[in-house]
Amino acid sequence: MSIGSSPPSVRPPGGGRRAERLAPYVLIAPAVLIILVLRLYPLLLGVNYSFTGDGERDGQAVGLDNYTELLKDPVFRTALENVGLLVLLLPVAVAIPGLLATFIHLRVPGHRFHRGVYFFPAVLSPVIVGAIFNLLLAFDGPLNSGLGYLGIGPVDWLGDPDVAMFTVVGVHVWATFGMALVVFLAGFSTLDPSLLDAARVDGASLPRVIRHVIVPGLSRTIQFVVVTTMIGMLTSMFGLLYVMTSGGPEGSTYLPEYYIWIQQGQMNRPALASAASTVLFVIMLVVGLAQIALLRRTGRES
């Protein structure tokens, strides 16, 4: 071989190419195995168990009897109505951290202090949060005392069936939006700053910048936050419900998650609880897919 000439390329043998093709599957195999064993398999067992009976009919196939009983149960229907309420309140729960992240990204005065303060509630236990707000929202608590100084009558925040669910949802949003705020801030790091600069040069107002620049640029981040926030509302409010209202007053603050715990843990009806779990899973799946489809269409229109 002459001096200065490049060495001949060496092709990997057939076994080496096969190993390269298999390497990605080998790397993801542990995660897939964990999902199959700890997630998918228990889910299938729960769905299958929902078609069996409780009590004297334990283990016997009962068809759709459990689902029929759920639809006849006024408490479960209230839980489903509350799910609809959560869907209606979801835009507010997503808009709050989104707007705060926007102000922080635009470096409003005190943005560093605000960043830490807004995230602080996310590290608190739901039990602690519930206990704190039980004191603040008591009928003779500080909040109603402050309203009294303004000439406003006291509000039974946790004892009025028409108000209690809104109160618990508001506390949940306050306690959890810090995580969504962090996700939005991470999304802003991927946003092209030249687009914001061009909007400022053109004299665009903040609402127009948000609608035509920020929302399209953060469409994937918004999709992620919407889905995770909805899942959190449906599956992570048990602690607050248990501490603040225990499903009351008059069952007005029941959610499927709390209903499942009551049937499984107190009524000893695991098959009915499995049916309620299956309904909750289907609701989460349908709502999540519908929200993603709507956000994608909105992003294309923008």
From TrEMBL:
Q: Where is the ABC transmembrane type-1 domain?
A: 75-291
| Protein location | Cell membrane
What is the name listed in the Swiss-Prot or TrEMBL entry for this protein? Answer: Sugar ABC transporter permease
| Membrane disposition | Multi-pass membrane protein
Recorded source organism is: Streptomyces millisiae
Task: Provide the transmembrane region boundaries.
Answer: 22-41, 83-106, 118-139, 163-186, 224-244, 271-295
Similarity section: Belongs to the binding-protein-dependent transport system permease family.
Q: Which keywords label this protein? A: Cell membrane, Membrane, Transmembrane, Transmembrane helix, Transport
InterPro entries xrefs: MetI-like (IPR000515), MetI-like_sf (IPR035906), UgpAE/MalFG_permease (IPR050809)
Q: Where is the signal peptide?
A: none
Q: Which domain of life is it from?
A: Bacteria
Q: Name one Pfam family in it.
A: BPD_transp_1
